[in-house]
Amino acid sequence: MAGSAVLLISLLSAVAPLPSEALNVRGHLLKSKTFRSPPILLGPGSVSNKYHHDVDFPRGHLAVKSFDAEVVDENGVPVPLHETYLHHWVAEPYYALKNSQSPDTQNLPKGMLKRNDGVCKTTLGQYFGLGSETRHTATWVPDPYGIEIGNEDKAPEGYEEKWLLNIHAIDTRGVVDKPSCTECKCDFYNVTIDEYGRTISKNYTGGLFCCYDQTQCRVKEGFNGEVRKLFLQYTVTWLDWTDAVVPVKIYIFDVTDTAMLDGTPEHSCKVEYQVEECSAENRANNECIHTKTARAALPRGGDIVFSVAHQHSGGVGASLHGQDGRLLCESLPTYGTGKEAGNEANYIVGMSTCYPKPGSIKVSDGEVLTIVSNYSSDRQHTGVMGLVYILVAEPQQPTPAPSLCFSFPVPWCLPAWMSSNM
Ligand SMILES: *[C@@H]1O[C@H](CO)[C@@H](O)[C@H](O)[C@H]1NC(C)=O
Ligand SMILES: *[C@@H]1O[C@H](CO)[C@@H](O)[C@H](O)[C@H]1NC(C)=O
Ligand SMILES: *[C@@H]1O[C@H](CO)[C@@H](O)[C@H](O)[C@H]1NC(C)=O
Protein backbone atom coordinates (compact mmCIF):
# COMPACT_ATOMS: atom_id res chain seq x y z
CA MET A 1 0.00 0.00 0.00
CA ALA A 2 1.71 3.15 -1.20
CA GLY A 3 0.12 5.28 1.52
CA SER A 4 2.08 3.59 4.24
CA ALA A 5 5.37 3.02 2.51
CA VAL A 6 8.24 5.02 3.90
CA LEU A 7 11.25 4.95 1.68
CA LEU A 8 14.59 5.69 3.16
CA ILE A 9 17.14 6.63 0.62
CA SER A 10 20.61 7.66 1.57
CA LEU A 11 21.49 10.92 -0.03
CA LEU A 12 25.08 9.77 -0.11
CA SER A 13 24.24 7.79 -3.20
CA ALA A 14 23.21 10.96 -5.04
CA VAL A 15 25.95 12.30 -7.25
CA ALA A 16 26.78 15.76 -5.96
CA PRO A 17 28.68 18.00 -8.37
CA LEU A 18 30.39 20.01 -5.64
CA PRO A 19 32.33 18.69 -2.67
CA SER A 20 30.57 21.19 -0.39
CA GLU A 21 27.22 19.76 -1.38
CA ALA A 22 28.29 16.26 -0.58
CA LEU A 23 29.59 17.49 2.76
CA ASN A 24 26.35 19.23 3.61
CA VAL A 25 24.18 16.22 3.11
CA ARG A 26 26.58 13.56 4.35
CA GLY A 27 24.81 11.06 6.53
CA HIS A 28 21.39 12.66 6.24
CA LEU A 29 18.52 10.47 5.25
CA LEU A 30 16.09 11.48 2.58
CA LYS A 31 12.64 10.30 3.59
CA SER A 32 9.57 10.01 1.45
CA LYS A 33 5.93 9.28 2.11
CA THR A 34 2.83 9.12 -0.06
CA PHE A 35 -0.50 10.42 1.21
CA ARG A 36 -4.02 10.79 -0.15
CA SER A 37 -6.34 13.76 0.16
CA PRO A 38 -9.88 13.29 1.45
CA PRO A 39 -12.08 11.90 -1.36
CA ILE A 40 -13.19 14.10 -4.25
CA LEU A 41 -16.67 13.11 -5.49
CA LEU A 42 -17.33 13.97 -9.12
CA GLY A 43 -20.11 13.23 -11.61
CA PRO A 44 -20.04 14.20 -15.30
CA GLY A 45 -19.65 17.99 -15.65
CA SER A 46 -19.39 18.66 -11.92
CA VAL A 47 -16.83 20.77 -10.10
CA SER A 48 -15.17 20.19 -6.75
CA ASN A 49 -13.23 23.04 -5.16
CA LYS A 50 -12.74 22.22 -1.50
CA TYR A 51 -10.39 23.32 1.27
CA HIS A 52 -9.18 20.48 3.47
CA HIS A 53 -7.67 21.44 6.81
CA ASP A 54 -5.20 19.37 8.82
CA VAL A 55 -4.31 17.01 5.97
CA ASP A 56 -1.70 14.31 6.33
CA PHE A 57 1.82 15.70 6.13
CA PRO A 58 5.23 14.80 7.60
CA ARG A 59 5.54 16.23 11.12
CA GLY A 60 8.50 17.75 12.88
CA HIS A 61 11.19 20.30 12.08
CA LEU A 62 11.96 19.36 8.48
CA ALA A 63 13.50 20.46 5.21
CA VAL A 64 11.03 19.65 2.41
CA LYS A 65 12.82 18.54 -0.76
CA SER A 66 9.88 17.84 -3.10
CA PHE A 67 6.10 17.63 -3.34
CA ASP A 68 4.68 15.60 -6.24
CA ALA A 69 1.00 14.95 -6.82
CA GLU A 70 -1.56 13.44 -9.17
CA VAL A 71 -5.24 12.53 -9.27
CA VAL A 72 -5.99 8.81 -8.84
CA ASP A 73 -9.13 6.71 -8.47
CA GLU A 74 -10.00 4.39 -5.59
CA ASN A 75 -7.67 1.71 -6.96
CA GLY A 76 -4.79 4.14 -7.23
CA VAL A 77 -5.08 4.26 -11.02
CA PRO A 78 -4.07 7.66 -12.48
CA VAL A 79 -7.06 9.52 -13.96
CA PRO A 80 -6.42 11.33 -17.26
CA LEU A 81 -7.01 15.09 -17.57
CA HIS A 82 -9.66 14.66 -20.28
CA GLU A 83 -11.82 12.90 -17.70
CA THR A 84 -10.91 14.87 -14.59
CA TYR A 85 -9.24 18.17 -15.28
CA LEU A 86 -7.02 19.20 -12.37
CA HIS A 87 -7.55 22.95 -12.45
CA HIS A 88 -5.20 23.46 -9.51
CA TRP A 89 -4.11 22.22 -6.14
CA VAL A 90 -2.29 24.23 -3.50
CA ALA A 91 -0.69 23.16 -0.23
CA GLU A 92 -0.07 25.72 2.48
CA PRO A 93 0.94 25.47 6.12
CA TYR A 94 -1.09 27.32 8.74
CA TYR A 95 -0.96 27.81 12.48
CA ALA A 96 -3.86 26.18 14.30
CA LEU A 97 -4.85 27.13 17.83
CA LYS A 98 -3.92 24.24 20.15
CA ASN A 99 -6.57 24.53 22.88
CA SER A 100 -9.45 25.96 20.93
CA GLN A 101 -12.01 24.68 23.48
CA SER A 102 -10.38 26.40 26.45
CA PRO A 103 -12.10 29.59 27.76
CA ASP A 104 -8.69 31.31 27.71
CA THR A 105 -8.49 31.10 23.94
CA GLN A 106 -12.06 32.13 23.01
CA ASN A 107 -10.97 35.44 21.53
CA LEU A 108 -8.00 34.11 19.60
CA PRO A 109 -8.20 33.26 15.89
CA LYS A 110 -8.58 29.50 15.36
CA GLY A 111 -6.04 29.54 12.58
CA MET A 112 -3.62 31.79 10.74
CA LEU A 113 -2.16 31.11 7.32
CA LYS A 114 1.60 30.84 7.26
CA ARG A 115 2.09 32.45 3.90
CA ASN A 116 5.15 32.16 1.67
CA ASP A 117 7.52 35.13 1.51
CA GLY A 118 5.66 37.10 -1.11
CA VAL A 119 4.91 39.17 -3.00
CA CYS A 120 1.11 38.86 -3.33
CA LYS A 121 -0.57 39.99 -0.13
CA THR A 122 -3.87 38.11 -0.06
CA THR A 123 -3.78 35.49 -2.79
CA LEU A 124 -1.11 32.95 -3.76
CA GLY A 125 0.27 32.32 -0.27
CA GLN A 126 0.95 28.64 -0.93
CA TYR A 127 4.19 26.73 -0.42
CA PHE A 128 3.42 24.30 -3.26
CA GLY A 129 0.85 24.32 -6.03
CA LEU A 130 0.39 23.29 -9.64
CA GLY A 131 -2.37 22.28 -12.04
CA SER A 132 -2.63 20.00 -15.04
CA GLU A 133 1.18 19.99 -15.40
CA THR A 134 1.71 18.30 -12.06
CA ARG A 135 2.70 14.84 -13.39
CA HIS A 136 5.75 16.07 -15.28
CA THR A 137 6.95 19.15 -13.43
CA ALA A 138 9.97 18.81 -11.17
CA THR A 139 9.57 20.18 -7.65
CA TRP A 140 12.94 18.97 -6.32
CA VAL A 141 14.77 21.51 -4.16
CA PRO A 142 18.46 21.05 -5.02
CA ASP A 143 21.10 20.33 -2.36
CA PRO A 144 22.12 21.81 0.00
CA TYR A 145 18.83 23.76 0.09
CA GLY A 146 15.51 22.94 1.72
CA ILE A 147 12.14 24.51 2.51
CA GLU A 148 11.97 24.78 6.28
CA ILE A 149 8.73 23.65 7.92
CA GLY A 150 7.57 22.69 11.40
CA ASN A 151 10.01 24.82 13.39
CA GLU A 152 8.18 25.04 16.72
CA ASP A 153 10.24 28.04 17.79
CA LYS A 154 8.70 30.05 14.96
CA ALA A 155 5.08 29.16 15.75
CA PRO A 156 3.13 31.79 17.70
CA GLU A 157 2.58 30.87 21.36
CA GLY A 158 -0.32 28.43 21.72
CA TYR A 159 -0.38 27.47 18.03
CA GLU A 160 0.86 24.48 16.07
CA GLU A 161 1.64 24.07 12.38
CA LYS A 162 -0.79 22.12 10.22
CA TRP A 163 -1.35 21.83 6.45
CA LEU A 164 -4.18 23.00 4.24
CA LEU A 165 -4.92 21.51 0.83
CA ASN A 166 -7.17 23.16 -1.76
CA ILE A 167 -8.06 20.99 -4.74
CA HIS A 168 -10.03 22.26 -7.70
CA ALA A 169 -11.06 19.54 -10.15
CA ILE A 170 -13.54 19.53 -13.03
CA ASP A 171 -15.10 16.32 -14.34
CA THR A 172 -15.40 16.71 -18.11
CA ARG A 173 -16.79 13.27 -19.01
CA GLY A 174 -19.59 13.77 -21.53
CA VAL A 175 -19.55 17.56 -21.47
CA VAL A 176 -20.61 19.58 -24.51
CA ASP A 177 -17.21 21.28 -24.87
CA LYS A 178 -14.20 20.31 -22.75
CA PRO A 179 -12.13 23.49 -23.28
CA SER A 180 -15.10 25.69 -22.31
CA CYS A 181 -15.59 23.70 -19.11
CA THR A 182 -11.91 23.70 -18.17
CA GLU A 183 -11.67 27.45 -18.90
CA CYS A 184 -14.76 27.99 -16.75
CA LYS A 185 -16.81 29.81 -19.41
CA CYS A 186 -19.80 31.24 -17.53
CA ASP A 187 -22.30 30.39 -20.29
CA PHE A 188 -21.40 26.72 -20.10
CA TYR A 189 -21.95 26.71 -16.34
CA ASN A 190 -25.10 28.84 -16.59
CA VAL A 191 -23.64 30.96 -13.79
CA THR A 192 -24.52 34.65 -13.46
CA ILE A 193 -24.08 35.00 -9.68
CA ASP A 194 -20.82 34.10 -7.97
CA GLU A 195 -20.22 31.91 -4.93
CA TYR A 196 -20.71 34.88 -2.59
CA GLY A 197 -24.03 35.98 -4.16
CA ARG A 198 -22.60 38.83 -6.20
CA THR A 199 -23.80 39.44 -9.74
CA ILE A 200 -21.06 38.64 -12.23
CA SER A 201 -20.25 41.52 -14.58
CA LYS A 202 -21.42 40.97 -18.17
CA ASN A 203 -17.94 41.37 -19.54
CA TYR A 204 -16.58 38.55 -17.32
CA THR A 205 -16.93 35.63 -19.69
CA GLY A 206 -15.06 32.99 -17.74
CA GLY A 207 -12.86 32.11 -14.80
CA LEU A 208 -13.01 30.91 -11.22
CA PHE A 209 -16.12 32.97 -10.36
CA CYS A 210 -18.08 30.71 -12.72
CA CYS A 211 -16.74 27.27 -11.74
CA TYR A 212 -16.85 27.26 -7.96
CA ASP A 213 -17.53 24.20 -5.83
CA GLN A 214 -20.69 22.27 -6.85
CA THR A 215 -21.24 24.14 -10.12
CA GLN A 216 -22.12 22.06 -13.15
CA CYS A 217 -20.83 22.32 -16.70
CA ARG A 218 -23.21 21.48 -19.54
CA VAL A 219 -23.30 17.76 -20.40
CA LYS A 220 -24.44 16.20 -23.71
CA GLU A 221 -28.04 15.11 -23.62
CA GLY A 222 -28.44 11.48 -22.69
CA PHE A 223 -24.92 11.08 -21.33
CA ASN A 224 -24.75 8.94 -18.25
CA GLY A 225 -21.72 8.50 -16.06
CA GLU A 226 -21.41 7.35 -12.49
CA VAL A 227 -20.21 9.56 -9.66
CA ARG A 228 -16.57 8.73 -9.03
CA LYS A 229 -14.52 8.89 -5.87
CA LEU A 230 -11.08 10.31 -6.61
CA PHE A 231 -8.11 11.49 -4.58
CA LEU A 232 -5.16 13.78 -4.90
CA GLN A 233 -2.25 11.48 -4.16
CA TYR A 234 0.85 13.35 -3.06
CA THR A 235 4.37 12.30 -2.23
CA VAL A 236 6.49 14.46 0.03
CA THR A 237 10.24 13.95 0.40
CA TRP A 238 12.16 15.58 3.20
CA LEU A 239 15.19 15.58 5.47
CA ASP A 240 15.16 16.20 9.20
CA TRP A 241 16.27 19.79 9.68
CA THR A 242 19.97 20.37 10.45
CA ASP A 243 22.27 23.34 10.21
CA ALA A 244 23.73 21.81 7.07
CA VAL A 245 20.51 22.57 5.18
CA VAL A 246 20.46 26.04 3.67
CA PRO A 247 16.93 27.49 3.95
CA VAL A 248 15.25 28.99 0.90
CA LYS A 249 12.46 31.54 0.65
CA ILE A 250 9.47 31.02 -1.64
CA TYR A 251 8.24 33.89 -3.82
CA ILE A 252 5.36 33.72 -6.29
CA PHE A 253 5.04 36.39 -8.96
CA ASP A 254 1.77 36.91 -10.81
CA VAL A 255 1.64 38.50 -14.26
CA THR A 256 -1.72 40.09 -13.35
CA ASP A 257 -0.06 42.09 -10.54
CA THR A 258 -0.15 45.50 -12.17
CA ALA A 259 0.48 47.52 -8.98
CA MET A 260 3.93 48.64 -10.04
CA LEU A 261 2.93 49.45 -13.62
CA ASP A 262 -0.13 51.34 -12.35
CA GLY A 263 1.91 53.10 -9.68
CA THR A 264 -0.35 51.89 -6.86
CA PRO A 265 1.22 50.81 -3.55
CA GLU A 266 -0.73 47.59 -2.94
CA HIS A 267 0.02 44.44 -4.85
CA SER A 268 -3.02 43.19 -6.66
CA CYS A 269 -2.50 39.63 -7.75
CA LYS A 270 -5.71 38.88 -9.59
CA VAL A 271 -4.47 35.37 -10.40
CA GLU A 272 -6.51 35.01 -13.60
CA TYR A 273 -6.77 36.93 -16.83
CA GLN A 274 -8.29 36.72 -20.26
CA VAL A 275 -6.65 36.35 -23.66
CA GLU A 276 -8.64 37.77 -26.57
CA GLU A 277 -8.61 36.12 -29.97
CA CYS A 278 -6.13 37.78 -32.29
CA SER A 279 -7.29 40.15 -35.03
CA ALA A 280 -7.64 39.02 -38.64
CA GLU A 281 -4.67 41.21 -39.48
CA ASN A 282 -2.45 39.60 -36.87
CA ARG A 283 -3.63 36.20 -37.97
CA ALA A 284 -2.66 36.96 -41.57
CA ASN A 285 0.82 37.86 -40.30
CA ASN A 286 1.06 34.76 -38.11
CA GLU A 287 1.20 36.89 -34.98
CA CYS A 288 -1.32 35.21 -32.74
CA ILE A 289 0.72 35.40 -29.55
CA HIS A 290 -0.61 37.33 -26.57
CA THR A 291 2.14 38.65 -24.31
CA LYS A 292 1.40 39.95 -20.84
CA THR A 293 4.02 41.62 -18.66
CA ALA A 294 4.21 42.79 -15.06
CA ARG A 295 6.87 44.08 -12.71
CA ALA A 296 7.35 43.51 -9.00
CA ALA A 297 10.16 44.14 -6.53
CA LEU A 298 11.79 41.15 -4.88
CA PRO A 299 11.87 41.96 -1.14
CA ARG A 300 15.14 40.13 -0.36
CA GLY A 301 17.84 39.05 -2.74
CA GLY A 302 20.14 36.05 -2.89
CA ASP A 303 20.71 33.12 -5.22
CA ILE A 304 17.83 31.74 -7.26
CA VAL A 305 18.14 27.97 -6.84
CA PHE A 306 14.91 26.83 -8.52
CA SER A 307 12.26 28.39 -10.70
CA VAL A 308 9.16 27.27 -12.59
CA ALA A 309 6.12 28.92 -14.21
CA HIS A 310 2.47 27.92 -14.17
CA GLN A 311 0.24 28.34 -17.22
CA HIS A 312 -3.02 26.90 -18.53
CA SER A 313 -3.82 25.30 -21.89
CA GLY A 314 -2.92 27.76 -24.63
CA GLY A 315 0.20 28.87 -22.74
CA VAL A 316 3.39 28.89 -24.81
CA GLY A 317 5.92 29.93 -22.16
CA ALA A 318 6.71 32.36 -19.39
CA SER A 319 9.89 34.00 -18.19
CA LEU A 320 11.37 36.05 -15.37
CA HIS A 321 13.92 38.81 -15.91
CA GLY A 322 16.15 40.91 -13.68
CA GLN A 323 16.08 44.70 -13.50
CA ASP A 324 18.73 44.93 -16.23
CA GLY A 325 16.68 42.62 -18.44
CA ARG A 326 18.83 39.51 -17.94
CA LEU A 327 16.96 36.23 -18.16
CA LEU A 328 16.55 34.59 -14.75
CA CYS A 329 14.43 31.67 -15.93
CA GLU A 330 12.36 30.62 -18.91
CA SER A 331 9.76 27.92 -18.28
CA LEU A 332 8.10 26.25 -21.24
CA PRO A 333 5.07 23.97 -21.35
CA THR A 334 4.95 20.44 -22.73
CA TYR A 335 1.67 19.38 -24.31
CA GLY A 336 0.53 15.78 -24.32
CA THR A 337 0.10 13.88 -27.57
CA GLY A 338 -2.06 10.90 -26.61
CA LYS A 339 -4.87 9.75 -24.35
CA GLU A 340 -3.18 8.18 -21.35
CA ALA A 341 -2.68 9.93 -18.00
CA GLY A 342 0.43 12.08 -18.16
CA ASN A 343 0.27 12.46 -21.95
CA GLU A 344 -3.16 13.96 -22.66
CA ALA A 345 -3.36 15.79 -26.01
CA ASN A 346 -4.31 19.50 -25.79
CA TYR A 347 -3.35 19.74 -22.11
CA ILE A 348 -0.19 21.08 -20.54
CA VAL A 349 1.30 17.98 -18.93
CA GLY A 350 4.56 19.52 -17.70
CA MET A 351 6.45 22.80 -17.31
CA SER A 352 10.20 23.01 -17.72
CA THR A 353 12.13 24.18 -14.65
CA CYS A 354 15.35 26.10 -14.01
CA TYR A 355 18.12 24.78 -11.77
CA PRO A 356 20.86 27.40 -12.07
CA LYS A 357 24.40 26.34 -11.29
CA PRO A 358 24.78 27.25 -7.58
CA GLY A 359 25.58 30.94 -7.20
CA SER A 360 25.20 31.74 -10.91
CA ILE A 361 21.84 33.57 -10.78
CA LYS A 362 21.91 36.35 -8.21
CA VAL A 363 19.17 38.85 -7.47
CA SER A 364 19.49 41.77 -5.10
CA ASP A 365 17.35 43.21 -2.31
CA GLY A 366 14.53 45.24 -3.84
CA GLU A 367 15.45 44.34 -7.41
CA VAL A 368 12.56 44.96 -9.80
CA LEU A 369 11.80 41.76 -11.69
CA THR A 370 9.77 41.45 -14.88
CA ILE A 371 7.33 38.61 -15.41
CA VAL A 372 6.34 37.67 -18.99
CA SER A 373 3.57 35.23 -19.87
CA ASN A 374 2.80 34.24 -23.48
CA TYR A 375 -0.35 32.54 -24.74
CA SER A 376 -1.50 31.54 -28.16
CA SER A 377 -4.35 33.86 -29.19
CA ASP A 378 -5.55 31.61 -32.00
CA ARG A 379 -8.74 31.59 -30.00
CA GLN A 380 -10.01 33.34 -26.87
CA HIS A 381 -8.91 31.96 -23.48
CA THR A 382 -10.61 32.77 -20.19
CA GLY A 383 -9.34 32.27 -16.65
CA VAL A 384 -5.72 31.71 -17.67
CA MET A 385 -2.77 32.20 -15.36
CA GLY A 386 0.83 33.33 -15.57
CA LEU A 387 2.73 32.67 -12.35
CA VAL A 388 6.43 32.32 -11.69
CA TYR A 389 7.54 30.49 -8.54
CA ILE A 390 11.12 30.95 -7.36
CA LEU A 391 13.21 29.70 -4.45
CA VAL A 392 15.83 32.14 -3.18
CA ALA A 393 18.70 31.34 -0.82
CA GLU A 394 19.79 34.43 1.04
CA PRO A 395 23.49 35.01 1.65
CA GLN A 396 24.48 32.98 4.71
CA GLN A 397 25.92 34.70 7.76
CA PRO A 398 29.49 33.45 7.76
CA THR A 399 29.82 31.21 10.81
CA PRO A 400 32.53 32.51 13.14
CA ALA A 401 35.71 30.61 12.43
CA PRO A 402 36.45 28.16 15.21
CA SER A 403 39.29 29.38 17.35
CA LEU A 404 42.29 27.11 17.57
CA CYS A 405 42.90 26.23 21.18
CA PHE A 406 45.80 24.58 22.98
CA SER A 407 46.21 23.26 26.45
CA PHE A 408 49.98 23.55 26.71
CA PRO A 409 51.77 25.09 28.47
CA VAL A 410 48.63 26.83 29.77
CA PRO A 411 45.16 26.82 28.15
CA TRP A 412 45.19 29.45 25.36
CA CYS A 413 43.51 30.14 21.99
CA LEU A 414 44.50 31.78 18.74
CA PRO A 415 42.08 34.65 18.03
CA ALA A 416 39.48 33.73 15.39
CA TRP A 417 40.79 36.27 12.85
CA MET A 418 44.15 34.54 12.89
CA SER A 419 42.92 30.98 12.74
CA SER A 420 40.51 31.84 9.88
CA ASN A 421 43.52 32.66 7.71
CA MET A 422 45.23 29.38 8.43
C1 LIG B 1 -29.91 28.43 -16.27
O1 LIG B 1 -30.30 29.25 -15.17
C2 LIG B 1 -31.59 29.81 -15.28
C3 LIG B 1 -31.81 30.79 -14.13
O2 LIG B 1 -31.04 30.44 -13.02
C4 LIG B 1 -32.62 28.68 -15.31
O3 LIG B 1 -33.92 29.22 -15.44
C5 LIG B 1 -32.30 27.75 -16.49
O4 LIG B 1 -33.17 26.65 -16.48
C6 LIG B 1 -30.86 27.26 -16.42
N1 LIG B 1 -30.53 26.54 -17.64
C7 LIG B 1 -29.94 25.35 -17.63
C8 LIG B 1 -29.66 24.75 -18.95
O5 LIG B 1 -29.65 24.76 -16.60
C1 LIG C 1 -15.31 44.50 -16.93
O1 LIG C 1 -15.72 45.84 -16.75
C2 LIG C 1 -15.35 46.39 -15.49
C3 LIG C 1 -16.01 47.75 -15.36
O2 LIG C 1 -16.03 48.46 -16.57
C4 LIG C 1 -13.82 46.43 -15.43
O3 LIG C 1 -13.41 46.98 -14.19
C5 LIG C 1 -13.28 45.03 -15.56
O4 LIG C 1 -11.87 45.02 -15.60
C6 LIG C 1 -13.81 44.37 -16.83
N1 LIG C 1 -13.44 42.97 -16.76
C7 LIG C 1 -12.97 42.29 -17.82
C8 LIG C 1 -12.71 40.84 -17.59
O5 LIG C 1 -12.75 42.79 -18.89
C1 LIG D 1 7.11 35.74 -25.40
O1 LIG D 1 6.77 36.44 -26.57
C2 LIG D 1 7.69 37.45 -26.90
C3 LIG D 1 7.10 38.26 -28.05
O2 LIG D 1 6.56 37.42 -29.02
C4 LIG D 1 9.03 36.80 -27.24
O3 LIG D 1 9.97 37.79 -27.53
C5 LIG D 1 9.50 36.02 -26.01
O4 LIG D 1 10.69 35.31 -26.32
C6 LIG D 1 8.43 35.03 -25.58
N1 LIG D 1 8.87 34.41 -24.31
C7 LIG D 1 8.59 33.16 -23.97
C8 LIG D 1 9.08 32.69 -22.64
O5 LIG D 1 7.95 32.41 -24.67
UniProtKB/TrEMBL annotation:
Keywords recorded for this protein, A-Z: Signal
Signal sequence interval, chain numbering: 1-22
Pfam family, one: SURNod19
Record-linked PANTHER family: STRESS UP-REGULATED NOD 19 PROTEIN
Protein name: Stress up-regulated Nod 19 protein
Organism from which the protein derives: Triticum aestivum (Wheat)
